[in-house]
Amino acid sequence: MALRNLSKLKIHKFGIRQFSKEANLVSVAVNDKTGVATLNLQRPPVNSLNLEILSEISSTLTDLEKNKTRGLILTSKNEGIFSAGLDIMEMYKPDVERMKKFWTTLQDTWIKLYSCSFPSVALINGHAPAGGCLLALSCEYRVMFKNCTIGLNETQLGIVAPQWFISSMRNVIGQRQTESALTQGRMFKTEEALSIGMIDEVVENNEEGVARAAAFLKRFERIPPMARAMTKKYIRKETIENMVKNREEDLKNFVTYGTQPAVQEYLGAYLQSLKKKSKA
Ligand SMILES: CC/C=C\C/C=C\C/C=C\CC/C=C/CC(=O)SCCNC(=O)CCNC(=O)[C@H](O)C(C)(C)COP(=O)(O)OP(=O)(O)OC[C@H]1O[C@@H](n2cnc3c(N)ncnc32)[C@H](O)[C@@H]1OP(=O)(O)O
């Protein structure tokens, strides 16, 4: 049964409470025993992040916060692809008003995910380039399938990862690795990502992935939630404050930079190369 928000959760016979939003670009199931919510991205074919799916992720995070969820597993319904990152169509030949709304919604989504009070795990069950990698890096723990790739590849597209993307990576793998990864726009295979600490565990399949994600969340069972949440807040405070302080400028940069003819040319060529590849 479709419900609009978590406060009206329906308890199903298996103890899993479910709700889904009207547009169904995400779905959420809350485990009634553990209070852990699994948020599935489900925008076929590749979970690229457009305005609509970002709005749904953002409002879901608000609902989860309000409903005091005990933990979040962020994953994808399209096994093989966690998320292809930002929908390039939102940046290519854009309508500037929509482009602004899109970027503002991405900012909001990142702030909510990065600062959520509950523990979060990305179950990366497929490729996670660029914005997909950003979502995963914003969680506290990352469990990833074998034979996938992850990274901030923006420079390869002729675009620049904003400061808060960079900080999200730097806070996980450090300055040296981030500089090397970002200047090359490097995508890491699962084992490489593990070796530099970008991810925490490698799993064979979804069952193992869910179990490992749940095991991470279980570590907090005996930690008072308030103490945990405040500690996370203090640790992430500077990164979040920097972004919030500069978000107007960040929006301006995105629009100014993203609409430059040279950037549009790169994006157009990149889209063509993706389309050619999918038709080959
Ligand atoms: C001075 C400057 C100061 C400050 C700077 C301020 C702002 C900076 C400006 C901009 C920053 C913007 C940041 C952007 C971050 C991003 O997230 S950009 C997106 C990057 N994403 C990618 O590069 C991923 C591209 N996709 C892939 O590599 C593969 O598709 C993937 C491995 C995910 C899946 O492969 P596969 O299963 O083989 O699928 P296909 O490749 O066949 O794709 C299926 C169809 O989906 C389309 N598609 C794929 N990715 C995207 C996408 N990201 N957006 C839109 N569409 C996508 C693809 O074209 C296929 O379409 P078709 O079926 O042919 O119609």
From TrEMBL:
Q: Quote the pathway field.
A: Lipid metabolism; fatty acid beta-oxidation
Keyword hit for Transit peptide: yes
Query: GO terms for CC?
Result: mitochondrial matrix
InterPro entries associated with the record: ClpP/crotonase-like_dom_sf (IPR029045), Enoyl-CoA_hydra/iso (IPR001753)
Localization per record = Mitochondrion matrix
For biological process, the GO terms are: fatty acid beta-oxidation
**What are the transmembrane regions?**
none
The answer to whether the entry has keyword Lipid metabolism is: yes
Q: Which SUPFAM superfamilies match?
A: ClpP/crotonase
Record-linked Pfam families: ECH_1
A GO term, aspect molecular function: delta(3)-delta(2)-enoyl-CoA isomerase activity
Q: Which UniProt keywords apply?
A: Acetylation, Fatty acid metabolism, Isomerase, Lipid metabolism, Mitochondrion, Transit peptide
Main localization (coarse): mitochondrion
Self-association state and partner proteins as the record states:
Homotrimer.
Q: What is this protein called?
A: Enoyl-CoA delta isomerase 1, mitochondrial
